[in-house]
Design brief:
Layout lengths: L2 H9 L9 H11 L18 H14 L5 E3 L11 E3 L2 E2 L2 H10 L1
Antiparallel strand pairs: 1-2, 2-3
């Protein structure tokens, strides 16, 4: 599938497909050999301020020479904004390739 086809597929999924989200994420991560355990990770949770805190910390870490990737959810405008590496959204081609591989 290409990026536009994947966007349409994701947008049209019934809400019932999203049930058991935690179990599905756990299954997916285990199938990928738990990549979240292979890199230092900071997990932001809460009601307010996560995005601004994340952006500030990302800037500080990058200014200190760290390589920073982030995953946020939900997306606001574009599904790709959920996956960012060094302040650049994932490309449409890479997004499509990864979703297709999964």
């Amino acid at each position: 599938m290409n990026y536009q086809e994947i966007r349409q597929w994701l947008s049209n999924r019934p809400v019932s497909d999203l049930e058991n989200g935690v179990a599905r994420v756990k299954w997916l991560l285990e199938g990928l050999d738990n990549p979240q355990l292979q890199v230092p990770t900071i997990h932001f949770v809460g009601t307010n301020g996560k995005g601004s805190t994340l952006n500030a910390l990302q800037s500080i870490l990058q200014a200190s020479g760290y390589t920073v990737g982030r995953f946020t959810s939900p997306s606001i405008i574009d599904f790709r904004e959920q996956i960012v590496y060094q302040q650049e959204m994932i490309s449409e081609d890479d997004f499509a390739r990864i979703v297709t591989d999964l």
